[in-house]
Amino acid sequence: MSGNPDYETVLKAISAWPPEQRMALAHDVLETVRHDAQTTSAPKQTLQRALGLGRGDAQPPNDREVAGWVDEHLSEKYGK
Fold first, then answer.
1. Measured between alpha carbons, how far is 69 from 72 in angstroms, rounded to an integer?
2. pLDDT on residue 63
3. Taken in order 45, 47, 53, 59, is the CA torsion positive or negative?
4. What pTM was computed for the model?
5. DSSP 19-53
6. Hey, where are the domains in the chain?
7. Cα 16 from Cα 74, distance rounded (Å)
8. In this predicted model, what pLDDT tens digit does every residue of 25-80 receive, in sequence order?
9. What's the pLDDT score for residue 41?
10. Measured distance CA(1)–CA(12) in Å, rounded
């Protein structure tokens, strides 16, 4: 699979192991990958970047304006 001779050697060596032992090894290998990923990438500031994303410069509409928009939409859709 890989061009790495060590990879092939390890694969041959573990192929004789019982399934539980191979699964344990796979788990341990995945843990090392997860650990490496956690230490190499800085935490993203997603929440901080998302706050205010949809905010415009104008004031938000009040209840009366929203009700007017709903009435307008319903009038266009169903007529009055």
1. 5
2. 96
3. negative
4. 0.42
5. HHHHHHHHHHHHHHHHHHHHHHSPPP-HHHHHTTT
6. 18-42
7. 71
8. 999 999 988 877 666 666 678 887 788 777 778 888 999 999 999 999 999 999 86
9. 62
10. 12
Residues 6+ apart with CB under 8 A from 61: 69
CA pair distance 22, 12, nearest whole angstrom: 12
Q: Is residue 7 within 8 Å of 1, Cβ to Cβ?
A: yes
Query: Encoding tokens for residue 41?
Result: 């990438």
For tokens 């706050």, name the residue.
Answer: 51
Per-residue model confidence (pLDDT) at position 53: 79
Count of residues making up the chain: 80
> What single letter denotes the amino acid at residue 49?
R
As given in the structure block, the two tokens for residue 69 are: 């928009």
The tokens describing 31, both together, are: 């843990």
